[in-house]
């Protein structure tokens, strides 16, 4: 990974995830008010993307595995609740719609991965509670 990137990984269950961040030139730019977007800002924006079947956002569902930011390019690695889930294109379109206008993002892409497979343990406590999963 180069110095001009920020990497945040949350592949473990939400609430127990470990966040690793590599300081970047973007962090310095954000601190100086130069408009660089952070991984936390991207994740916050992605909370507006709802799974249409469950009505819960993709971040709290644990579907967003990784946010990588380098030189104004944001790459989101995400999964779906099931391998044959037909809402992948809808979720990606919503991600584009929400992230493209954010200051500090010059380009965006999303990558659908199926490994590790999603499981209910990856959900935040709030999502588990909303779905009655204990």
Give your account of this protein's structure.
With 134 residues, this protein is α+β, with helices and mostly antiparallel strands. It is 25% helix and 18% strand. The chain has a four-stranded mixed beta sheet with strand order 1-2-3-4, with helices on one face. It is globular.
Set out the fold topology.
Blueprint lengths: L4 E5 L15 H7 L7 H8 L17 E7 L2 E6 L9 H12 L7 E6 L12 H7 L3
Parallel strand pairs: 3-4
Antiparallel strand pairs: 1-2, 2-3
- Strand runs, count: 4
- Treating each run of at least 4 consecutive H or I residues as one helix, how many helices? 4
Q: In whole angstroms, how far apart are the ends?
A: 38 Å
Radius of gyration: 15 Å
Kindly state the percentage of residues in helix.
Answer: 25-40%
Briefly note the structural class of the backbone: alpha+beta
Task: Note poorly predicted spans.
Answer: 1-33
Trace the largest sheet across and list its strands: 1-2-3-4
Shape: globular
Largest sheet: 4 strands, mixed
Averaged pLDDT:
78
Succession of helices and strands: EHHEEHEH
Tell me the strand percentage band.
Answer: 15-25%
């Amino acid at each position: 990974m180069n110095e001009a990137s920020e990497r945040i990984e949350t592949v473990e269950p939400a609430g127990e995830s470990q966040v690793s961040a590599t300081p970047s030139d973007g962090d310095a730019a954000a601190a100086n008010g130069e408009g660089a977007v952070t991984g936390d800002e991207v994740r916050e924006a992605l909370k507006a993307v709802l799974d249409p079947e469950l009505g819960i956002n993709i971040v709290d569902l644990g579907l967003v595995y990784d946010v990588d930011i380098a030189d104004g390019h944001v790459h989101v690695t995400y999964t779906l609740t099931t391998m044959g889930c037909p809402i992948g294109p809808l979720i990606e379109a919503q991600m584009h719609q929400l992230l493209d206008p954010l200051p500090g993002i010059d380009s965006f892409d999303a990558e659908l991965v199926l490994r590790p497979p999603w499981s209910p343990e990856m959900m935040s406590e709030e999502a588990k509670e909303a779905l009655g999963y204990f």
